[in-house]
Amino acid sequence: MTRHPRARPRAMAAPLRELQEPGMTGAPTPPLAFIYDRNATRSRAMLEMRISGCRTYAERQGWEVAGWWVDFGDEALGKERPELGALVGVLVRMVVVRRAFCLVHHWNRFAHDIEGRHALQRRVARVGGYSATTFGESDARAGHERTGYEHAEYEHAGSGHAGNLRVPAAETERPARM
Question: Disulfide-capable partner of 24 in 20, 88, 112, 124 (CB 3.0 to 4.6 Å)?
């Protein structure tokens, strides 16, 4: 498996007591952003720019960055996405102690086709996380449980990008359609 030298996540050195809910330590714990990208070409310039953009956006939002994970070459185009799997493996342990999510520059960093993108977003959602972009889009719904992507609806923000994904019901909680 090919890894970018900076694709490895930063060590999670904070003790559990520092990750507790607001009110328990007196200060609110910022959400934890897990940056994901993919790069199928040899050029790394655009990748570095997107990663930097994600880090800058997270900083402006007051979020802590857990690290970044990048799939390269054929792995960036396939369905398996080993680095996304590694990200989800760490995220699943963090969502029990704080709000955590996958941050991408744009939705097409998951996949260019909507079905492929939704399948990869579901991997994050199934472990209790959600996905967001540096364009302010998110598949999280404030005050509601985010769930599946089978009947996703879009609210267009009118700012030249795809809009916010709103997810109405859990795919995993519904019986399969015939």
Answer: 20
